[in-house]
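User: I'm curious whether this sequence folds into something compact or stays loose and floppy. Could you predict its structure so I can see for myself?
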Amino acid sequence: MQFTSFGAAGEVTGSQHLIETESVRLLLDCGLFQGERAETYAKNAHFHFEPKKLDGVILSHGHIDHCGNLPRLVKQGFAGPIFCTPATADVAEVMLLDSVHIQHEDAAYLAESLGPDAPPIEPLYTEADVRAACERFETLEPGDWHRVGKPLQIRFQHAGHILGAAITELEIEDDRELRRVVFTGDLGRCGMPLLPDPQQVDACDVLIVESTYANTVHPPLADLKDRLAKIVHQATERNGRVIVPAFSLGRTQTLLAIWRELQESGRLPEMPLYIDSPLAHRLETVYERHPDAVKSPDTSIFADLPNVHTIRTQRDSMALNSRQEPFVVVAASGMCEHGRIRHHLLHALPNENNTIVLIGFQARNTLGRSLSEGAKTVSILGYETPVRADVEVLSGLSAHADAEDLRWWFRSMTETGGVGQAFIVHGEPQAATALAAQIRDDCNEDPIIPEWRETYTT
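Assistant: Here's the prediction. I'll summarize afterward.
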């Protein structure tokens, strides 16, 4: 069996891993790289393998850095099934259609910034390409084994990361030998709102495991709630605004669940909260279609919340920046690279009365990462913008497992025989190294932190 990582190797974006045996070639995820536009366009425009030769794709979940390059994969000749959970199929369709809009915006931005003499920049794919990719989805209910061909069985288990996210168990007949492979995708956390805890699984021959926060312990959720309430009260006292960059999928819904709890317990002032994300509203219907994928059948996340308002049009979004009263706005994207959040940041950052609240991982070469690292000025929409607002990082809301969650998740593997060979992906070098040290004693071979495009035989 050979393993090659074409994305999320030594970084936290662009998940794309290839498994090859004598009988099958499977791609695990097909995500977009996220970061500076010119760099990521070059990375996303080319595959370093032949899509036509793939037998299938396993899609762990619907975040764009895991599913976002599927339309281009199909466009370049992939004609096999894309296996995923039913909720992931619905989530990914919404996210990919939104990605088309972003691709066109980015192409226009690059064309303008590179000048008229540069070669034309085309979007990575079109809506028709998205539709073609979605037609290849083959949904499998989590919890059960599914025979999808002579050499291959698949079982999905709840990953607890976002709606529909799955841990993938594979049983592959490789040269008359049955190999058990586990791919975590992105692991979630225990005890979080809305979603079930990650499912523990048994020992395996090959493990591909994420490591985003493997060198970190998230603060307790109760501490995050306290800090969020304090930030909102402080904004009221300062007559400032609170700007929250948040992914439309997962993070926005979790934040709303926490806001509901704080509001119902009387811990928040009378301050309006604006959800400035049309994508988040489109995703609400997906939550409602999949009550089996959440903790509670009450999935009307936006319903019956006093002082919570929906922003639907660009005009209404722009009008928020003229408001004199304190307010909170939640807008995409979570790493501040696209969408309406950039306009809100442009207006809010120069004012010391305002607060920017970062509630998720910020990849290298993103605006969010610059803010989290204390940049004094940032470039937004062509403007050099001073950073005078407070920048608060609330990592307790992360949807990724931390060191303690990973230690708990590995327990059942250790108790049932451990791991043959582990490949540690989807983490920056310090995090991946920390996880390698943590699990080394539970592996037959030293864990490998794969290099980009390097092939390993196991």
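Summary: The chain has 13 helices and 21 strands. The longest helix spans residues 86-114.
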